[in-house]
C-alpha cells in the first residue's frame, strides 16, 4: 500500500519562504503524477500544484503562480514544494497526493494522500 509522508511545514512571517517535502513508499512513485493540495480551517481542500510522472508538465493554481515551485526527484521517491513570498492566505494544512495517472488530471485522479503538514503564515 502506498504511503506518503509530508514534512517542512511550520510558522513563517509574511514574505518568507518554506520548502515542503513528500516522501513516498510502498509503490512505484515514478510512474504517476504528484500533486500538492491545501485546506484552510472551515474551507474545502483546494488544488495547489501538480507535476507529471517525469516532470515535463507542471500546473499551478492561479493564487500561487509565480511564488510556488513544484519539483520531483524520482530517484529519492520525493516531491517538493518551494513556497516563496508567503501570504497569510497561504495558511493551511498542505497535503501531498499521488495520482492514478501518468499525466496531470482532475482532482479525482488523486487516490493516495499523506497526513498533511501545517503551514502558518503570520501577517
Secondary structure layout plus pairing:
Elements: E1 3-7, E2 10-13, E3 18-25, E4 34-39, E5 46-51, E6 58-60, E7 68-73, E8 78-83, E9 92-99, E10 110-113, E11 117-122
Distance between the termini: 40 Å
Strand content: over 45%
Main sheet, how many strands, which sense, barrel? 7 strands, mixed
- List segments where confidence is low: pLDDT < 50 over at least 5 consecutive residues: none
| Helix residue percentage | under 10%
Rg, nearest Å: 13 Å
Shape: globular
Number of helices: 0
Please provide the count of β strands: 11
Question: Summary?
Answer:
The chain has strands spanning 3-7, 10-13, 18-25, 34-39, 46-51, 58-60, 68-73, 78-83, 92-99, 110-113, 117-122. The chain is mostly beta strands and 123 residues long.
What report would you give on this structure?
By secondary structure, the chain is mainly beta. The strands form 2 sheets. Strands 2, 4, 5, 6, 9, 10 and 11 form a 7-stranded mixed β-sheet that branches. A 4-stranded antiparallel β-sheet has the order 1-3-8-7, with no helix packed on it. It starts with a strand and ends with a strand. The model has no long low-confidence stretch (mean pLDDT 94).
Amino acid at each position: 500500500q502506498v504511503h506518503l509522508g509530508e514534512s517542512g511545514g511550520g510558522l513563517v512571517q509574511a514574505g518568507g519562504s518554506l520548502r515542503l517535502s513528500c516522501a513516498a513508499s510502498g509503490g512505484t512513485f515514478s510512474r504517476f503524477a504528484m500533486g500538492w493540495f491545501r485546506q484552510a480551517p472551515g474551507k474545502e481542500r483546494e488544488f495547489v500544484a501538480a507535476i507529471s510522472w517525469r516532470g515535463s508538465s507542471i500546473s499551478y493554481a492561479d493564487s500561487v503562480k509565480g511564488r510556488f515551485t513544484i519539483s520531483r526527484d524520482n530517484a529519492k521517491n520525493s516531491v517538493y514544494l518551494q513556497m516563496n513570498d508567503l501570504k497569510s492566505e497561504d495558511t493551511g494544512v498542505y497535503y501531498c497526493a499521488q495520482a492514478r495517472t501518468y499525466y496531470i488530471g482532475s482532482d479525482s485522479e488523486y487516490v493516495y494522500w499523506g497526513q498533511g503538514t501545517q503551514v502558518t503564515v503570520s501577517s
